[in-house]
Prior knowledge:
By secondary structure, the protein is mostly helical.
Amino acid sequence: MRSELKDYISVVYGPSHWDDLLRIEAEIRQQKRDNEYARIELMQKITEWAAGIALFVVLVGGLGGFAWLATR
Length: 72
């Protein structure tokens, strides 16, 4: 099917348009890869921040608990 499309585009619009189509396809694939990488990176940052905040809350709570026990 792709061969038929190449033949059609080459005959109707000229061979340079097929090359343009291939270039555009490559750009779209690269954009998809970049977007997927950025999405994964963002999710990793969110996870790291959430874990850091949770750890901070647990440590502060533990410290407060120890201080409360020390004053009893």
